Amino acid sequence: MTVDITTKYLGLDLTNPLVASASPLTGKLDTLFQLEEAGAAAVVLPSLFEEQIEHDSWAVHDLYEYSSAISPENFGGYVPEMEGYNTGPDRYLDLLENAKDKLGIPVIASLNGMSPGGWTKYAKFMEECGADALELNVYRVATETNTTGSEIEQGYIDLVTDVKGSIGIPLAVKISPYFSSLASMARRLVEAGADGLVLFNRFYQPDINLDELKVKPDVVLSSPVNLRLPLRWTAILRGRINGSLAASSGVHTGEDVVKLILAGADVTQMASALLKYGPSHLATVLFEMESWFAERNYESIEQGKGSLSQVHASDPEAFERTNYMRSLVSYSSRY
Amino acid sequence: MTARNTARNIARTNAENNGQNGGQNNAESIAQNIMVDGNEAAARIAHALSEVIAIYPITPSSAMGELADSWSQARQTNIWGVIPDVTEMQSEGGAAGAIHGALQAGALCTTFTASQGLLLMIPNMYKIAGELTPVVIHVAARTVATHALSIFGDHSDVMATRQTGFALLSSASVQEAQDLALVAHAATLRSRIPFLHFFDGFRTSHEIKKIIGIDRDVIREMIDEDLVTEHRLRALNPNAPKLRGTAQNPDVFFQAREAANQFYDEVPRIVQEEMDKLAGLIGRQYRLFDYHGAPDAENVVVLMGSGVGAAKEAVDHLVAAGEKVGMVTVHLYRPFSIDHFVDALPETVKNVAVLDRTKEPGATGEPLYLDVIAAFAERGGGPRVIGGRYGLSSKEFDPAMVLTVLDELAKDKPKNHFTVGITDDVTNLSLPVERQWREDEDVVRAVFYGLGADGTVGANKNSVKIIGENTDMAAQAYFVYDSKKSGAMTVSHLRFGPGEIDSTYLISKANFVACHQFNFMEKIDVLDVADDGATFLLNSPFGPNEVWDQLPANAQQHLINKRLKFYVVDATSVARTAGLGQRVNTVLQTCFFALSGVLPHDEAITAIKNGIKKAYGKRGQVVIDKNYAAVDSSLAALAEVTVPNAVSSTRQLVEPVPADAPDFVQRVTAMIASGKGDLLPVSALPVDGTFPTATTQYEKRSIAIDIPIWDPEICIECARCALVCPHAAIRLKVYDPAALEGAPDGFQTKPWKGRDYEGMNFTIQVAPEDCTGCTVCVNVCPAKSKAEVKHKAINMEPKIDHVAVEKENYEFFLSIPEMERTKVSPDTVKGSQMLKPLFEYSGACAGCGETPYVKLMSQMFGDRIIIANATGCSSIYGGNLPSTPYAVDDQGRGPAWSNSLFEDNAEFGFGMRLAVDHQTTMANDLLAELAPEIGALAGEILDADQSSEDGIAKQRDRVVELRRLLTALDSPLAKRLDTLADYLVRMGVWIMGGDGWAYDIGFGGLDHVLASGRNVNILVLDTEVYSNTGGQASKSTPRAAVAKFAAGGKATMKKDLGMIAMLYADVYVAQVSMGANMTQVAKAFAEAEAHDGPSLIIALSPCIAHGIDMSTMMAHQKEAADSGYWPLYRFNPAEADAGRPPMKLDSRAPKMSFRDFAKSEGRFAMLARANPEHYEELMDQAQDDIDNRWHLYEQMIHVERTAELAVEEGEE
User: Which of A314, B117, B423, B493 has the CB geometry, 3.0–4.6 Å to B113, for a possible disulfide?
Assistant: First the structure.
């Protein structure tokens, strides 16, 4: 039983549809190796956060400047100014270069910018350091009561246009599901130059610490239940937009991968399950997925890709239904 | 690595090290002109010519060790292509010993030191010299502590080594510090005589100057490889064994001592030859004694060190006027070559004044004077010689003083053994300086007043480098600081000029004055220093049309009388808009260049930007961009002010102390506090260094911008804010509501809820003018508004809105009667805070982690303790003039305090204990002897239980009664007992200091005192670095932390001092952390005091050297405990005596990783940025340290110490 499990994502030929998405595991060379070893077809490095770089620069600047010249016994600050440190993007770019140098699989860089100039500047750096593709991690919490949804959306479109115009490598855009019209937005992003979309972002959400009465930013690992959202939207967008689709969030088992492929994903991205079970878990998932297709005598996963997308499913309305109907039914059934 | 292309390289370049502080570029090839200070000038030669460098921090020489360490960390090699091995030792004594050993084993060595450090090296210096071993010790000469410590410069340390057999070579300037360092290294190899190369602390060590660098080829040329080989061949080597360091007897020792004579005889010739050789290579000619002046001079001064610069200006001035005067600069002081000296002087000389920068009480004269006398005497005849002292502890020494000395010298009967630069109205030795001095008009003389934290000093260092490096002008910068660590004022003195700048003194007539903080205008006479027609730049929130009305009268007067050109810029706003926060330096620097015209406008802007890029390149593009933006917007905000013709202000400078302060404070403290200490005559000062305490209360510095304001509605009376306040500026009082009579309207109060003081009220009150605005109190306040969580029971609010009301409130608060000590439980958080702090308003840094412990100790026991304080931060904020934070209670009792040295503090306190115990015994014996006459009271006193506040209070009452009875007795025995009666009341001894003392330099003594069994309490304020000298690593520094002398991250684990002490079974040991468990701290203090034997408390004290936001220091302490990094425990021998395990763990098993704790502290985080691989390695090891130690402690809490009890239990 051999199934062709290769796939194409952002124009890249991948050996299988399992991509290790941005996580601490993709931030270090040794775990990157382990992921490749376990069968990852590509890796997405953790996001370079422009905001963090700026914050870091100021923190270091303050560290050296604040304590200097406070007494005649302390002429030059308390912490010795170190050699070779940097607060800019160099650490990230070094990781990218090293990963490209040492790994055989495609390396996708990820960027979370802040300023228009920052997005394009860092995107170029990443291309120059050998990234096979770039994933833009775009999400901003729009708190301004005067900013409209269309302004935000146009901002995203402009951003993608700018970045695409400044680089030659394929571009993926990782988006959140929180758009009034996600399908339209997806189309516009692709038309603006995105070679593919990653569904979806998972980001820090604030929690409240009841002991200290403080807001604490936190991220919780995904669970298989999170799969449903990308599953729905993969299925909806398959065939509706002219770009690759990567499904992310809640991919924990081989069956999860299968579902997403059937829904229409070109690749699936995993992070939480790998953090939970270790990089080698990827091999298990790969085996499970391959077995599923093999046992059902698929020639290739391409064959099944999108077979259950909204366009191709037997019950296309199911992807549009919300929980309202089911609730109503269950409510009624009690009588 | 793949090829990098343009854009990436731009990113790289921006982030690259561009030689941030000059100290980082001891490169192979050195540019002709370099901007360095004296320390760097000497250190670059020393590093290039050494293999083994042993270091130890001491101001003002620390920078030499720091530079050597950082160069070696950066893999910079010596001239033989090898990286010198730089090692920090536990003391200067240790450094000297290590050097001695390394020399014996064949290495080329150096070390750097000053003052007490040099004194600690003396025993080894005798040995090194006795063994004819080539080495150079570089010394930034500093005052040796006598009646007081001083970090500043004079020759008292160097003079204490005259007898060691070292050659003493003196450099008078930054240029010489480099050039003669090389001569010293070359000459020591040739002569085999070890060299001490010295230059004046601060004046030369910290003066930044444009000098001509020496490149490596010249250094190589100066060193004879054969001599290096000879040195190596003399090394101890088992392949050709020999023995040194014998013990000799009366038969031969003397002859052997004389056997080295010819080596000393050769030194002057060798040094001169090396100076000549160097002159051939670099063109600068030095002589053992350099004569300068009229060839037919009659009156000549002789001196060495930085005073030479001032003397040269004075002599040149007089010679130009046709006077027959001259000067001799002493370079090779030991061995003193009589022939070279006498021959250096013109034969016409009739009178010589020898100036010594040291004092030798009781001698017939100071050392250099005696040498000169002897030289002339030996040669026969010679001129008349007088001697005088100048410049002790960096006292100003300027050309006017030299003119005065030359005037005196020309008199028929000049005053001998004079002093110059002070007013001695007691022994009348001083020469009155009536001469005026005007500096060369060509020289731009700029004086800048700034705050330590506003970047003024950094910007001026930058400016002087810009001018030095971009023009042909000579450039010089020197910086003066006040003695406080929080809100410290800095004064920068910058000179630029076409010719050589020899002016080694402060600018007294500036043609450019800048005041970077508007509030200085009403505190000090900023414009006193302005010359006629000078330019004045003021950072002002008021525009050109409004500012005049905001100035005090004295400033208006100066502006009018001196016809000053007056400019204002709202640098604070420009900086804020540019995103630079409080850092106004870039804006004001740009305005300085615009107004001074030192450089053409465009050139200046480009140079400033290049300077920014160079200084901040590594910090990231965003830092550079925002500073650039500040440069670009500065000039638009600069405006000239039209100065009116008449003074309109009625405002005067704020008085430094209130009018009702005690006499001494009015006469002395106030003068020092207002920067006029130089004007105090000898008679104003205590003869033995004894000062009154409780004087910080008179020095209201008012440095906070925001202050905490209490909201009684929310307060839960936990007292944490008062406990943690580093400056005792938040206080708690519980009192009878009747005391509220006459309270000001704004005074806040509320009923105490606890049942312990039912019916009483309480108030949390801020001292608005003593608060430094550190915010630690607000951070620890646990009471939050239910409706708005960010509003707490205390909140930072703008001082300007509250100061008037709170001043009045605080005054009233102080008048409320203090709680009686017998009515509180001082060993609790709340109880201790109801007691008056007897340590208040110190000059410690805002948010200091040490002072809350000191304050707590003062509240718990301050009325009955003597403190022995090791040199360090705690001795500076505790004992640096002008004012003293140790205070007194309403009975006039309070801590008596003294500082001996850095290295001997445990022994010093131990001696206090011995004295107190001895006098207590004497008092007890006398009382027993007098019992028949005194009656029952004698027995009551002798048997008194003084273990509680109540017991102590009763004993005090008994002693009052005893004294009454003794007066009536009127016998010699009664009189003796009367003088000793204080010792009948329990008196505690607290031995206090930092980790540098306890873990390193003072550990031997500390260990001995711990072993003594005597009742002393040792408080280690553990900041985990040498905080006072600028953050050098100690053995307390944790693994993976970056510190000076551990620039690559400390590779070894923190010493477990507590565990070492526990091995002495009778020592009480506690490891505490206020932020982790406040109750445990108070308990530990109480148990330590109660323990009748040695007690050791190790207190975690966050410091700005940790690279944290100090307002959150209590939270950091909590995380330190939560991560197991700083476990809390108490080891109480009393428990062992009761058959229980003596150790108790007071914190829980680690619940967060060390990495998580470490990531929020700059000292660890910087290593992660600079060297991630090494960081990871050290982090793993550091986690192992923590895990292993916790494992050990967990076992310890089950360990019983008392064998007998354990056996009994076993038998049961």
Answer: B117
